Each structure stands twice: as C-alpha cells, then as structure tokens.
Amino acid sequence: MRKASPDPQIEARRREPVPETVDPAIEALVHDVIGKVADKWTMLILEALHDHGTLRFTQLGKAVGRISQKMLTQTLRQMEKDGLVRRTVHPVIPPHVDYTLTPLGESLGAAFCGVWIWAETHHAEIQRARASFAEREAATSRLMASD
Q1: Residues of the signal sequence (predicted)?
Q2: CA-angle at 100, arms to 95 and 105, nearest 5°
C-alpha cells in the first residue's frame, strides 16, 4: 500500500488528550467499522483501489486475486453502503461498472496505512516472536509425549 497523506483533522485530534468518557455511539461505530474493514477482502479491495484508482469489476477481481465474484460483489456493496467506494454504471452495451474510492475511503486507507507501516517496521520482531513461540510449543509437545 502506498503511503497516504496524513489527514490533518485526525493528526490534530491525535495531539489532544484522551477523553475521560467515551461516547457509546462512537464506540459502537468504531467496533462496527473495525469488524467490517478488518476482514481481508475489504482491506485488499481498499488497497487495490488505492493503488490503481478506478477499476472495473473484473479488473478489481484480478487485482485482489482469489476472490469469488459473489464475495467481491458483497464486499463492494457493503463498502458502497458505508460510503467507502463509489459505483458507476456505464450505460453501454455490454454495460460495465467501475469502482473508485471516495474521499472517505481514501481517508480510511490513510488510517490503515499506519498499520502497514507498523507491520513493515516490526516484521523481523514478529517473525522472531512467532519462531520462539513455535519452538516453545514444540518443546512442550515433546515433553508431554514423553510422559
């Protein structure tokens, strides 16, 4: 994912102190958005549209890879419903449809770009931690098998 420009509003809010109380409506929205966006198809579609701009349905499917037409359709409909993508139907024969990220979708991409950068920065540490965990698990399994 390309590095996106930081959103000035979000960056300004990051510098503010953490509020003592949380608005339950905002908390519910955050849980809802994370639940939808954290699924791999949404993230991959977000990335493909961010990297390539406007794509037709079939191009988007190829850019994402290994996604069924049904899942692509369902995910795009949810993203359109949430205001993350704009769907444009071209009244030609045969008709074609293309998708573009909205400014809201672009800003979500910018927010998740931080996760990408974090993963890239800490990749080696995570790999070491996973290898260490696997070694401990294997040692425990061997100990239990020998008993």
Answers
A1: none
A2: 145
Instruction: Say if CB 100 and CB 76 are below 8 A apart.
Output: no
pLDDT per residue over 27-78, tens digit each?
A: 888 888 778 777 889 989 999 999 999 999 999 999 999 999 999 999 999 9
Return the CATH fold of 8-146. Arc Repressor Mutant, subunit A (1.10.10)
Give residue-wise pLDDT tens across range 115-141.
777 888 889 999 999 999 999 999 999
Question: Are residues 102 and 49 in contact, defined by beta-carbon separation less than 8 angstroms?
Answer: no
Half-sphere exposure for 9 (CA within 13 Å, toward CB): 5
Q: Tokens 């045969």 correspond to what residue?
A: 94
| Token duo for residue 80 | 């359109």
Considering the entire predicted model, what is its pTM? 0.74
